[in-house]
Design a protein that fits this description.
Bound molecules: zinc ion
Radius of gyration: 50 Å
Number of strands: 8
Length: 170
């Protein structure tokens, strides 16, 4: 293929040199309308296409993310040994709450009440004994003694009850 083009300086079609310039010494920037002198077919040099096109958008290079180290499997903490006294307090609180008594854990002594007409205190001792003090002012005995005895017997605890009744009606 014989390169040719129109030289703006020469104002005519010219053959091009190896540098795509005019054979008369005008450089390539003065050439337009390239064509193949052998065939007469116009063409655009590859480099000219690249020049006239917008530069390709920059390829966004993904910033390598620091790959987090896999979380180590959490090692389950060993269950703390169950304090039998604490466990018994928990059971008693649940069971007493189930018969509608109000329970507070007051420094390890369970303070039990039903309004103003019944109150009790329960101490669970490491010796394996449960002490129950009750004071029934009025109304129906809520049955805390039987409940505490039942719970205690399940775990082999002994129960000592101190009951004080006042003005029990009926
Ligand atoms: Zn020229």
């Amino acid at each position: 293929m014989t390169l040719a083009g129109h030289c703006k300086i020469c104002q005519q079609n010219v053959f091009l040199d190896d540098s795509w310039g005019c054979v008369n010494g005008h450089d390539w920037t003065q050439i337009e309308g390239w064509y193949d002198a052998d065939t007469g077919q116009p063409f655009v040099p590859e480099w000219a296409v690249q020049v006239t096109q917008d530069p390709p958008p920059p390829v966004s290079t993904p910033v390598p993310q620091a790959v987090p180290a896999p979380e180590p499997e959490p090692v389950p903490e060993p269950e703390p040994p169950v304090d039998p006294v604490e466990a018994m307090r928990g059971v008693l609180m649940d069971r007493l709450a189930a018969i509608n008594l109000t329970i507070a854990n007051d420094d390890g002594v369970l303070s039990v009440s039903r309004g103003d007409d019944y109150s009790a205190a329960i101490a669970v001792q490491e010796s394996g004994e449960i002490l129950l003090w009750e004071r029934l002012v009025t109304g129906v005995d809520p049955g805390a003694r039987d409940l505490v005895r039942a719970v205690a017997s399940e775990g082999g605890w002994r129960v000592r009850v101190a009951l004080r009744r006042e003005n029990v009606m009926g």
